[in-house]
Design goal:
The protein is built from 3 helices and 64 strands. Residues 572-576 and 653-662 have low confidence and may be disordered. The longest helix is centred in the C-terminal third of the chain and has 14 residues, at 553-566. Helix 1 runs antiparallel to helix 3. The protein is elongated and about 210 Å long. It has 7 domains: 1-127, Immunoglobulin-like (Sandwich); 142-219, Immunoglobulins (Immunoglobulin-like, Sandwich); 226-304, Immunoglobulins (Immunoglobulin-like, Sandwich), CATH 2.60.40; 314-399, Sandwich (Immunoglobulin-like), CATH 2.60.40.10; 406-501, Immunoglobulin-like, CATH 2.60.40.1220; 515-715, Immunoglobulin-like; 717-807, Immunoglobulin-like (Sandwich).
């Protein structure tokens, strides 16, 4: 038997049966051990924010208490918040919770825990924190400087007041405090830009969480645009443009005749108004617009579109014209401002289009490809930059029904003195079939002239272009009987075109009548000056080149100058094998001069000689040209061009200037010396042309049309430079070079071959030397004006230069 006595007891145990009871056995328990008593009361507070105070009491009991536990329970979840409290403790403060809990107090001793009852429980709780608020969507999001804006938020239970914070410099600062009964606050919009706010509730237990941010954009009042412009030169539209002030937001409202027509958001500064009537002027204004409203209107601008153009008046052919040749010429009167025209031609009956084209500003059109004996109609519309205008009325015409004919020719039939470079053109009444172009033939007698045939216009203009110029003074026949038109009809019955070319034009300086100005003319002039005329001499008027009424050396000089200035005018150069040309260079004098010698191996007699060479710039400036046995030396060195040289055999007193200047033998090389001032020897020279006459009226091109690069070798030898100055008065200097020591004789001869002065007669060392002739002959008398020759004679060699004394 188990018993749980709570006070002192005496237990008696006896047994019995049917005979009665046995004697009792007694057992006394003076102080029984039991579990502690449950609390008689438990109280938990609910009036504090951060704690719950739990107090309790126990009934009077002899049973000892060893420890006390406190348990809080919510939603079937129990947590021991205090364990092992001392037996004398009657109060415990719970922290760290939120909401309401059930608190139970239990006493413990060695026998276990007290058995609780209703008195051991009580509900207690923490005062709640204030909840979070949030801004209402009805709060303002935009505002204008100088105005106000309102923020609204949702109410929170248990709030004491609200704080409104604004983000300033990245830090939330309190800018307003509202009572618990309010849910709005107003602010002044005093600065342009975004403003960011948050709201926070404050309750008994402190501040609640901050709300999310709410932005309010504060705008400046709109700015009126400036410099509004409207175009008046566009098609079907007016383009507006303006300047927008810096910092403007929103956009621009466009007004036409005080009625709003468009809004252009920033940053746009242009608008195109296409809802306009051609030629009508409109007044436009503009105003800045944003959330703050409209600005003042801008100054008005007047714009308009380009006006439409009138239809052109048709000119020819007149209405109802008949028998028109194909192609047909259409024309109309110009319309001011038109950039072109649109022309349409169609068959009058079927309406099938023949021509539908956009033409330029010309007021005429040639229409080909028409059928014979057919009625057509045509009209023209004006083209402006804005497109096509209203077309003119229709006008009719009819094409001819006659056989093909030649309406015009160039040159005219029977023309004379036609240019040899003529291009033949024949205009027919009908288009030519391209496949029949081979049927047009140009002939000179029985000889067929080669050329190309083509068609122009609307296929009715035949063009024949000879491959090469025609012959001078020749009769030609252009037969086009082999042609046919696009309708298959032959041109065989049409008469041929006949014409004659003009006589050849003789070039200036053509003395021998071969229509060439060449070296043969120089030879002829030389023979005439020497008194050796040919069997048929040219007439005097042909010889007088300078127009002074006579033929003399001056005419030869003018012919030579023309040759070196313009080059020979040779119709067909005869070719020969290229000759060998050697070139040498050496210093000339002690003043930095240079001499280049060219030796050309010529077979037979070479009379007048023409040479074109190209020298590099380092050769210096040409000062003279020397060739033994030649006279009348002309030279020209144009900037960047070739050096042109003409050599003519000397004519003074015969074929040579004197006894010391024999002419070149037939098989000897032709030696030409070029003397330069300054410069240095080039590595090579380029020979472009080398022409010689053979003395019989023929000219040979020894280097025909080919550039020859001639290397220059360094060489030295006896040299006599041209005198300087030349012509001279009263004296001149003659310089010469000796390749080695030698006896030297330097004399002056007249044109009759007489020695008139002795300048040097002695042995001299190698090198450069100079002598001066004072213009006096032996005996001291002054020499007369004329040509003289300086002759340098050494042991076995002679050099001669020509000098001119002018008194």
């Amino acid at each position: 038997v188990t018993d749980r006595p709570t006070r002192a007891v005496v237990y008696r145990v006896l047994s019995f049966n049917g005979c009665g009871e046995s004697a009792a056995v007694e057992a006394a328990l003076a102080n029984p051990r039991t579990r502690p008593a449950a609390p008689s009361s438990v109280t938990a507070t609910d009036a504090f924010c951060d704690s719950v105070i739990v107090t309790w009491s126990f009934p009077s009991s002899p049973t000892p208490i060893q420890s006390i536990d406190v348990v809080r329970t919510r939603s079937d979840t129990a947590i021991v918040v205090a364990a092992g409290l001392g037996p004398s403790i009657r109060r415990f403060v719970d922290t760290g919770g939120s909401g309401t809990y059930a608190y139970e107090v239990t006493a413990r001793n060695a026998c276990g825990a007290s058995v609780g009852g209703p008195a051991s429980h009580d509900d207690g709780g923490f005062l709640p924190e204030v909840g979070a608020s949030s801004f209402s969507l009805s709060s303002d999001t935009v505002a204008c400087v100088g105005g106000r804006f309102t923020l609204r938020w949702s109410a929170v239970p248990g709030v004491l007041f609200y704080r409104v914070l604004e983000s300033i410099g990245g830090v939330d600062r309190v800018v307003a405090v509202a009572e618990a009964t309010r849910d709005t606050v107003d602010f002044a919009a005093d600065a342009v830009g975004p403003r960011v706010f948050r709201v926070q509730a404050n309750g008994v237990c402190g501040l609640g969480p901050r709300s999310g941010s709410w932005s309010v954009n504060v705008y400046a009042p709109p700015v009126s645009p400036s410099d509004l412009e409207a175009t008046a030169d566009r098609c079907g539209e007016v383009r507006l443009a303006w300047n927008q002030s810096e910092g403007a937001v929103g956009g621009v409202r466009i007004f036409r005749e005080d009625e709003p027509i468009a809004f252009v958001p920033v940053p746009g500064t242009e608008y195109v108004d296409r809802d306009v009537i051609e030629g009508v002027s409109y007044s436009y204004t503009a105003a800045g617009q944003n959330v703050c409203g409209l600005s003042q209107l801008s100054e008005p601008a007047v714009g308009s579109t380009l006006p439409g153009l009138a239809s052109p008046d048709l000119a020819v052919p007149p209405e109802g014209a008949a028998g028109l040749a194909i192609p047909v010429f259409l024309s109309w009167r110009a319309v001011e401002g038109a950039v072109g025209y649109a022309v349409r031609v169609e068959e009058a009956v079927s309406g099938e289009s023949v021509v539908d084209t956009l033409a330029g500003p010309d007021t005429a059109l040639v229409v080909g490809g028409l059928d014979l004996a057919t009625d057509y109609r045509w009209r023209v519309a004006t083209r402006s930059p804005c497109g096509l205008g209203v077309p003119s009325g229709w006008r009719t015409f009819a094409t001819l029904s006659i056989a093909p004919s030649a309406l015009a020719t160039f040159p005219a039939n029977g023309a004379e003195e036609v240019a040899v470079d003529v291009v033949i053109r024949v205009t027919f009444s009908v288009p030519v079939a391209p496949a029949s172009l081979g049927g047009a033939v140009l002939r000179a007698g029985s000889f067929e002239v080669q050329g190309s045939s083509s068609l122009e216009g609307s296929g009715n203009v035949l063009v024949f272009d000879p491959d090469s110029p025609l012959d001078y003074a020749e009769n030609y026949t252009f037969d086009f009987g082999g042609l046919s038109d696009v309708f298959g009809r032959s041109f065989g019955d049409l008469p041929a075109l006949r014409f004659a070319t003009r006589p050849a034009e003789r070039p200036f300086g053509d003395l021998d009548g071969d229509y060439e100005r060449d070296l043969a003319d120089v030879d002829l002039a030389l023979l005439l000056l020497l008194g050796l005329p040919p069997d048929e001499p040219p007439p005097p008027e042909r010889l007088d080149l300078n127009g002074d009424g006579r033929f003399n050396v001056a005419d030869l000089v003018l012919l030579g100058q023309t040759l070196v200035n313009d080059g020979p005018s040779i119709l067909e150069e005869k070719t020969a094998e290229p000759i060998e040309i050697e070139a040498r260079a050496r210093p000339d004098g002690d003043e930095g001069g240079l001499r280049i010698e060219l030796d050309a191996s010529l077979s037979g007699e070479a009379r007048a000689t023409y040479l074109e060479i190209v020298l590099p710039r380092e050769s210096g400036v040409l000062a003279g040209v020397v060739a033994a046995g030649y006279d009348g030396l002309f030279r020209q060195a144009p900037e960047g061009g070739p050096l042109r040289i003409l050599l003519a055999p000397s004519i003074g007193g015969g074929a040579s200037p004197g006894p010391s200047a024999p002419a070149r033998a037939a098989n000897e090389p032709l030696r030409i010396s070029l003397v330069f001032e300054g410069g240095r020897a080039p590595a090579s020279i380029v020979v472009r042309r080398f022409l010689v006459s053979d003395g019989g009226g023929a000219v040979r091109a020894l280097r025909a049309g080919r550039d020859g690069v001639v290397p220059v070798a360094s060489a030295g030898g006896l040299e006599l430079l041209p005198n300087r100055p030349n012509p001279f008065n009263p004296e001149t200097e003659v310089r010469y070079y000796l390749p080695g020591p030698s006896f030297v004789r330097l004399r002056v001869f007249d044109t009759a071959g007489r020695a008139v002065a002795l300048l040097v007669d002695r042995a001299e060392a190698a090198g450069w030397h100079a002598a001066v002739w004072d213009g006096r002959v032996r005996g001291g008398a002054a020499a007369g004006s004329g040509v003289y020759f300086a002759s340098l004679e050494t042991e076995g060699e002679t050099r001669i230069v020509r000098m001119t004394l002018v008194r």
